[in-house]
Amino acid sequence: MPYAADADVAWVTPDGADLPYDGDVPVDVKRLAAKRRRQRART
Description:
Layout lengths: L26 H16 L1
């Protein structure tokens, strides 16, 4: 690993929580993303 010897970028991270799902993106998340895209397109 090229960064293993660099103390500024090589650190051990704690394990995170498992994702709440393993599959398709939930419909409500897709809906929120589409809403945000529409709002950004207007500005």
